[in-house]
Specification:
Layout (H helix, E strand, L loop, with lengths): L3 E5 L3 H13 L3 E5 L2 H10 L4 E5 L7 H11 L4 E5 L4 H9 L4 E4 L4 H19 L9 E4 L2 E4 L4 E4 L2 E3 L3 H12 L7 H9 L7 H15 L9 E4 L3 E4 L3
Parallel strand pairs: 1-2, 1-3, 3-4, 4-5
Antiparallel strand pairs: 6-7, 7-8, 8-9, 10-11
Length: about 230
Amino acid sequence: MVNKILLVEDDISISEMVRNHLIKDGFEVITAFNGEEAIELFREYSFDLILLDLMLPKLNGMDFMKVIREESLIPILIMSAKDSDVDKAVGLGFGADDYISKPFSMIELVARIKASIRRNTKYLKASKNEVKNIVNIDDLTVDLDNFSVIKEETKIKLTAKEFEILKLFIKNPKRVFTKAQIFNLVWNEDYFGDDNIINVHIRRLRKKIEDNPSKPKYIKTLWGIGYRLGEF
């Protein structure tokens, strides 16, 4: 099956370069040059991943992500010329799954795209025929096989990475994980000391599952060490 990508980039030369390379790598690519056009295309076609530049005309990348996240958990990979940690953290906080800084290597870009699609495919194709592995933690009900989280009868939408982080803690309730260990186990990539990816995903996960994210009970911080599941 050919994976379809929505490429949202207002720089025509960059868009053409990325599109041509991805097509050679076996992807189907549809391009948009502003946020409004991208939303129309997203609603018209079915995509496996969105490759998104943040600096867009008409509707910027942040506002575009807000709209998409209200409708879908599709993987979003940011391409950004802004290389500050703040920009990366804000982008991820709005619902992106990963980012790559401009200028970037096409080999790295393709690797990140494939990794994101692979993780999301695994997330979506959890077997319905297996015996359900359901864990109840206080007022959370987590189906580890079918990637489902319910809190007080309300289903919570988690991205694939958010769920994998939660699952990691649930399956290892007494273990403390450093940020490097979380990255290695969830992203399956080497950790290069960029704490913002972990910080933002933990913050986003807490916002969804905690009653009070500033005083978390499910995901506890051990200052200077890492994180662990709260005791119940």
